[in-house]
Amino acid sequence: MDRSPLAESLTKDLSLTAGSFIVTVYGDVVVPRGEVLWMGSLIEVCALVGIRENLVRTAVSRLVSAGRLEGERTGRRSFYRLAPEARAEFTQAARLLYSRDDAPAGWLIVHAPGLADEALRGQGFARLSGDVWVAPDRGQRVVGAALSLQAAPPEDPATLAACWDLAAIRAGYEGMIARFGGLEGATAAGGRIGAGDALIARLLLVHVYRGVLLRDPRLPEAALPDDWPGFAARRLFRRLYKDLSPDADAAVARLLEGGDRPLPETTPRTEARLFALG
Predict the structure, then answer these.
(1) Comparing C-alpha atoms, which of 207, 210, 204, 211 is closest to residue 183?
(2) Where in the sequence is the domain holding 244, given as residue range(s)?
(3) Among residues 27, 67, 196, 260, which is most buried (max CB within 10 A)?
(4) What's the predicted TM-score (pTM) here?
């Protein structure tokens, strides 16, 4: 299936792997609609962004082997759902994507010898020195840390911001804004793109924004430069997600099957996401 001109534009120069996009499809579309998707529907939606069937099948096989997807068969049809660990990870990401972000209550400093760097960075920590790490305090607790201290903001919070590679995160947000900013004048709410394009635009919006957001420690505003693009990216995501959703949800019900019937257009969980976006 050929990509539409809009899909071509939104995927230009975008590094899009089958496995990561499949997780986005499940997290944004499938999980809040019963969690199960037919393989044929997955192939069809991936084709809309230029991912070929053989790549989808290979990625699904690898995701199953890695414990990220679970499969079941009904007759000759194969259906898949996110495995519990992958579902828990996207649930955590969903709280960042679809809800308002609470400001941190100061800073958390931990002494964590022997803990993996990636595990700490995944909770928003940056290295202060040696085995001492710092993060905005959002109530997270580090299992295995030798010492944890809650600290008040320093006189100049920007001094702690230097612990993170904010340049890379800035570039990610600026790239997201450049890629999707033009959609504001042509969203589904304005009636100028089709339902299929609305679905693909929303999936790509979630995919790209999530990729940056999960690397962002979400520092207190006082620690960030005045022109920090994360604020504009957040506003853009919220506006576009809400504007694209009516036609995107209609496309879900028309194109995608879960179990023995089409996925529902909306559910209480999809409505709750839109309500949470304000």
Answers:
(1) 204
(2) 5-101+163-276
(3) 27
(4) 0.89
